[in-house]
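Reopening this one. Same input as before:
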Amino acid sequence: MSKIKDKWNDGDPYEYFMGRWSSLMSIVFLKWLNMPSNLNWLDVGCGTGALSEAIEKNCNPKHLASIDPSESFIEKVKHRISITGEFKVGSVENVPFKKESFEVIVSGLALNFFPDLEKALSELKRVSKPNGVIAAYVWDYSGRMDFLRHFWDAAYQIDPKSIEHDEGLRFPICNSENLISAFKNADIIEIESAQLDIDTIFKDFDDFWNPFLGLQGPAPSYLASLNNELQKDLKNKIKERLQFESDGSIKLVGRAIAIRGKCK
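Same output, byte for byte:
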């Protein structure tokens, strides 16, 4: 399978497509993590700041730092967070902070996009204080991230080559066993994993479909590559698969797989 480069750098379409669900999941994740107040936090691959904002509002951090390779996303975070923090354009393979700087290091919905997860976890351990917590969560692309599964399962019906773009197959790290193995291989201890669910509710089919038109991420990028006829076919196939509530809304499950552990 050829290497596919996803577009994840434009804040507004991202918010419409995935950001609204990221915000809901970040709160569920932090409740599961259950960290005390007054700690130094680092949000790695922070995107437009859903998790950083949730940390600020729910965890009473002593200090909050956020990094992401997208300058556009970092600008969004700066306007989203009211406390004084550090918001840097940076790579997870070369985290721009000194060693032993943070008690809690988190990453929301980003591990599967890290080019070298082994090196990334090594860097996170470097900037973690002794006994610091490293935690993350990723979408359950192959299982109960329902609205994406409906998209890709319908896409496969009209174009078997779409399988090359399907996150459920492209990102094997989005699996509890594989996440645990990666953390164990990084010599992270006291590892726990959990499935976290939210409701993804769309007010009607347009609310479901229109975010796929924003060119952000694998599914919208794949959709844009199709001609008009195939786009219409895919839209109809998806509509046939969905179950609508009596008011025309669509209620689906959005599941993430979470993991946490400690540095020695």
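So the earlier flakiness isn't reproducible anymore. For the record, Confidence is low (pLDDT under 50) at residues 7-11.
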